């Protein structure tokens, strides 16, 4: 059951004395994501726990380390800041602030159809965040509607998860006989 899966995952790798895990956000071939609250200030966090396979891939881990030298320095209103990346407990964890807001997919479902001006403004904000990250040599790699939050009345778009490369190395893909990513959300550099 989902509760048992979450309890097992939390007990193994998602927990920390620094935060309380609130809920499982989702899982995919790359691992599981949890919503947490930082104890010292109440800030919401996304805890991304990599899958066993990726946690054992040294080339992928090195790419994560390289990306996470850059990601915490990204300070931009349309980019959620990375907080930490660690190799503890035999699993890799990526931690980023999770701003208030709802995923773009949910926002679009609740507000159809968007006025052209509103759609263009949201897209411009997303592109500003991507451009800023690219200027720091960091790709997103999996820009899906779930990776973009829309905040409040101002409808500010914030791009999540810049600290993890979403295209595992070819040797992982070949050994696992899976594709390296979702072509619909891959960056042009990955295709």
Task: Give the overall silhouette.
Answer: globular
**Uncertain stretches of 5 or more adjacent residues:** 172-180
Q: What is the tally of beta strands?
A: 8
* Percent of sequence in beta strands: 15-25%
Order of helices and strands: HEEEHHEEEHHEEH
Largest sheet: 5 strands, antiparallel
Question: How would you sum up this structure, described in words?
Answer:
With 191 residues, the protein is of the alpha+beta class. It has helices at 2-14, 52-55, 58-70, 104-110, 116-135, 170-176; strands at 19-28, 31-38, 44-50, 82-86, 93-97, 102-103, 148-151, 156-159. The strands form two sheets. The chain has a five-stranded antiparallel β-sheet. Strands 6-7-8 form a three-stranded antiparallel β-sheet.
Describe the SSE topology.
Layout: H1 2-14, E1 19-28, E2 31-38, E3 44-50, H2 52-55, H3 58-70, E4 82-86, E5 93-97, E6 102-103, H4 104-110, H5 116-135, E7 148-151, E8 156-159, H6 170-176
Antiparallel strand pairs: 1-2, 2-3, 3-5, 4-5, 6-7, 7-8
A few lines on this structure:
With 191 residues, the protein is α+β, with helices and mostly antiparallel strands. Helices cover 34% and strands 24% of the residues.
Features:
single chain; about 190 residues; alpha+beta; three-stranded antiparallel beta sheet; about 35% helix; globular
